[in-house]
Design brief:
Layout: E1 3-9, E2 13-20, E3 26-32, H1 38-53, E4 60-66, H2 69-75, E5 82-87, H3 93-96, H4 107-110, E6 123-126, E7 129-130, E8 136-138, H5 142-150, E9 157-160, H6 170-182, E10 187-190, H7 191-194, H8 200-228, E11 231-235, E12 241-243, H9 244-249, H10 257-272, E13 278-283, E14 288-294, E15 297-298, E16 300-301, E17 304-306, E18 309-311, E19 315-316, E20 319-321, E21 327-330, E22 339-344, H11 363-369, E23 376-377, E24 382-383, H12 386-400, H13 405-427, E25 439-443, H14 447-458, E26 463-465, H15 472-479, E27 483-493, H16 499-514, E28 521-530, E29 537-541, H17 546-562, E30 570-580, E31 602-610, E32 613-621, E33 630-632, E34 635-638, E35 643-646, E36 650-654, E37 660-664, H18 665-669
Parallel strand pairs: 1-4, 4-11, 5-6, 5-9, 9-10, 13-25, 25-26, 32-34
Antiparallel strand pairs: 1-2, 2-3, 7-8, 11-12, 13-14, 14-15, 14-20, 16-19, 17-18, 21-22, 23-24, 26-37, 27-30, 28-29, 28-30, 31-32, 33-36, 34-35, 36-37
Helix pairs in contact: 2-8, 5-6, 10-15, 11-12, 11-13, 12-13, 13-14
GO cellular component, one term: cytosol
Domain Hydantoinase/oxoprolinase N-terminal: 4-182
Protein name: N-methylhydantoinase A
Length: 670
């Protein structure tokens, strides 16, 4: 027998899913994350799930891992000291940047400009020049290059980004050879490998970001590989898998590794209940990640955003909001207005209710005060201290002059829900989509508690709560496929390309990507713009449609986003081919058919505070619900890794695939 294991590391919990590759059977576990060394929490989770399955760790053939190591290195500014090599005259490429200031009117007055990941004193320039068509204008001065490299003292990583290297990488490859001689042991990132596309600033920034996180990621991957002693793959930001060595060489492709796993898992479970148009809503202990899925495919963007950093790397279009179960509520003295997040209590010390020394009021504490959470979380690993939670939330009530801790807790939950609604609007309304046309898939340890309220705010029905929603990201890791991508800059007018030339460009890229991953599916995309425009839009490509079909697709996307098109020719800027391997087998859940009456799963009742008053809510054990059972609100459905709240006026139907489908009660009556 052989097993594969999905692991997702969050800010508060580490989730593990073990899959029997022959039968497709699964086992789940949840354990506390260990921020100081994520591998400790991973190993604890592996041991816990193996004990539950009754197997030895040695039978695990593949470990598929979504990690935040690279993300945290960027957010916490704890990456490597990076040296940057540029073409002579371009030493300040990172400082000049794009002269873009985010925010509204007068944003430039208050916006603190982020410091470049490679400092100016660690940036050197070398003589040599390549033209945009790839011809060598000036040969590389190797003696000057060696002299420049010797100036870089104390750097742990080296990024080489020369002008027009996307068209000809000869100078970059030679510089890498010289660097290995002059700077042995230093990790080297080449822009022609990391991002072989035009635009010198974006290419330099992405290459430097790769070098910034590379040593830390390489150490983590090597450390974990040694400890688990089996095949390790890392989830990429675009939802595919990369072998450990490939991930360590190009860690910029895994900056959104963790959130991508959740979207993959959400798509898989939603398909089991017949839904392919989705908003995904992953609320953990530290943050909430939201994304939009159309026709069963997550939207893939060409930019990855982490904090103030935006790099050019394919990623699931996930937006992150600083709102999670550990988000801290506070009342600033100046405004006396309640705020929630983005500061988080994290895993250590965690919310006050965890009893680990935390005393700040959090969203989890508010849910405890409102009666929404059971006495223990994570399968009994964490016992909740209700008195500590009430004492913490009472500080908010006192600061605002509210009559009770329950009133303060309700305010905390309302505000965090509005914060998450803002994230959902970013991926839907702001992109031209009506959230009422989508189902809302809620997961993460805290997601199902807030799912019904978010459905009410967005009008997205049904709200789908998957089985074991707290470990869905690990399921996504375990059910995803290997993926690789090849890209290059083309810069040709579509009107000048024949159908054969057009097809040949993409087929060549597909061949390059297929050499690294056994292809089960090949998809194509391109960056297109109107001739004369400065920016382009990513568009999917169907080879059979040819250049004219791509132009029509671009016009439709431009019309959707900006409400107009232009009667001018189109330009193909960048072309990409993405190769995806076979999807692993996991057996879907098939519940026993029930008669609609959930009373056999009822375990009692409790008092909860909803809409300004206490009401009686029924308690249900999710594992005892049958297909077709209807759970009317107010109700709380408990399971090992999460708790689902069903509000008054709503009801949840148990789908045969195990998901809870929450809708307004009147829609079920009709």
């Amino acid at each position: 027998m052989s097993y594969r294991l999905g692991v997702d590391v969050g800010g508060t919990f580490t989730d593990v899913l073990l899959v029997d590759e022959e039968s497709g059977s699964t086992w789940r576990a949840k354990t506390a994350s260990t921020p100081s060394d994520q591998s400790v929490g991973v190993l604890n989770g592996i041991d816990k799930v193996c004990a539950e399955a009754g197997v030895d760790r040695a039978v695990i053939r593949h470990v598929l891992h979504g990690t935040t190591v690279a993300t945290n290195a960027i957010l916490e500014r704890k990456g490597a000291t990076v040296g940057l090599v540029t073409t002579e005259g371009f030493r300040q490429v990172l400082q000049i940047a794009r002269s873009f200031v985010p925010g509204g009117l007068a944003g430039w007055i208050i916006w603190p400009k982020p410091e470049p990941l490679a400092e100016l004193e660690n940036t050197v320039e070398v003589p040599g020049r390549i033209a945009s068509d790839g011809t060598i204008v000036t040969e590389l001065d190797e003696q000057a290059a060696r002299h420049a490299l010797r100036k870089l003292k104390g750097v742990e990583s080296l990024a080489i980004s020369l002008i027009n290297a996307f068209a000809n990488d000869a100078h970059e490859r030679r510089l890498a050879e010289l660097a290995k001689e002059e700077m042995p042991g230093v990790e080297i990132s080449l822009s022609s490998v990391v991002l072989p596309e035009m635009r010198e600033y974006e290419r330099a920034l992405t290459t430097v970001a790769n070098g910034y996180v590379q040593p830390q990621v390489a150490r983590y991957v090597a450390n974990l590989s040694d400890k688990i002693n089996t095949d390790l793959s890392i989830l990429r930001s675009d939802g595919g898998l990369a072998k450990a060595a490939a991930a360590a060489a190009a860690p910029v492709t895994m900056l959104l590794s963790g959130p991508a796993g959740g979207v993959t898992g959400a798509v898989w479970v939603a398909e089991q209940s017949g839904h392919r148009e989705l908003l995904t809503f992953d609320m953990g202990g530290t943050s909430t990640d939201v994304a939009l899925v159309r026709e069963g495919q997550a939207r893939i963007g060409r930019e990855t955003k982490v904090g103030d950093l935006t790099v050019r790397a394919s990623a699931v279009d996930v937006r992150t909001v600083g709102a999670g179960g550990g988000s801290i509520a506070h009342v600033p003295e100046l405004t006396r207005a309640l705020r929630v997040g983005p500061q988080s209590a994290g895993a250590e010390p965690g919310p006050a209710a965890y009893g680990k020394g935390g005393d700040a009021p959090t969203v989890t504490d508010a849910n405890v005060v409102l009666g929404y959470l059971p006495a223990a979380l994570a399968g009994g690993e964490i016992t909740l201290d209700r008195e500590a939670a009430r004492a913490a939330v009472q500080t908010v009530a006192d600061a605002m002059g509210l009559p009770s801790a329950e009133a303060a807790a309700a305010g905390i939950v309302d505000i965090v829900n509005e914060n998450m609604l803002g994230g959902l609007r970013l991926v839907s309304v702001q992109q031209g989509y009506d959230p009422r046309d989508f189902a809302l898939v809620a997961f993460g340890g805290a997601g199902p508690l807030h799912a019904n309220a978010l459905g009410r705010l967005t009008g997205a029905w049904p709200v789908i709560v998957p089985p074991s929603p707290g470990v869905l990201c690990a399921l996504g890791d375990a059910t995803t496929s290997a993926r690789d991508e090849a890209a290059r800059t083309v810069l040709r007018r579509l009107g000048d390309l024949t159908p054969d030339e057009f097809t040949a460009i993409f087929e060549e890229l597909a061949g390059a990507a297929s050499s690294r991953v056994a292809a089960a599916q090949v998809t194509y995309s391109a960056d297109v713009r109107f001739v004369g425009q400065g920016n382009e839009l990513p568009v999917t490509v169907e080879l059979g449609e040819g250049p004219a079909g791509l132009a029509a697709r671009f016009d439709a996307e431009h019309e959707r986003l900006f409400s107009f098109t232009l009667d001018v020719d189109h330009e193909l800027v960048n072309a990409r081919a993405t190769v995806t391997g076979e999807r692993p087998r996991v057996t879907p859940i098939h519940l026993e058919k029930g008669d609609g009456d959930p009373s056999s799963a009822r375990t009692g009742e409790t008092r909860v505070y909803v809409d300004g008053d206490f009401v009686d809510a029924a308690l249900y054990d999710r594992l005892r619900l049958r297909a077709g059972d209807v759970v009317p609100g107010p109700a709380i459905v408990t399971e090992m890794d999460s708790t689902t709240l069903i509000l008054p006026g709503h009801a949840a139907v148990t789908d045969p695939s195990g998901s809870l489908l929450i809708r307004p009660a009147e829609s079920l009556e009709g």
